[in-house]
Amino acid sequence: MSKTKINVVVAACNNMGIGINGKLPWRLKQDMAFFKKVTSTTSDPSKKNVVIMGKNTWLSIPAKFRPLSGRLNIVLSTTLTDVPQNVYVVKSLEQAMDLVNSMASTVENVFVIGGASVYKEAMFGSYPCRVYLTRVMGDFICDTFLPQIDETIFTRIPNPGDVPEGELEDNGTKYHFVVFEKKIDI
User: What positions does the domain DHFR occupy (predicted)?
Assistant: First the structure.
């Protein structure tokens, strides 16, 4: 098993929907602030965190916010060529993790931030994995879905100190954060 842990950061509604037409179906300011904080913050100021995403997730980020600042951006694509300097494009999650391992002295944490196929590979591949899930309490029309979190593979753990507790609400939408850790002995 790979030694580098992958952290999945995702928001999903009741039916595990995560997107519609390349966009989020909700607007949750506190969730976006959590996303930025958890993917940006390092305990060692000389290191950065890595965000790994598929091409469609990359393209869904407004151009003025690409690349995500303060983080090393890796995009999985076999066709994407027009990216800013210091953005890495690789063909697979395995190549992304090889790249991360080659930069191990400058990397603190690795976060997968979408899309659905990258989430699935990170969660059900051979990588140690933690899932930071924002459970959006509601039904939204979606065309992209997160795989169900299989409790024979993942265990819910107490929220670490950087993860908010309890129910939150933005724009009339209620949600809460839950964290799952992949079991080691599967």
Answer: 5-182
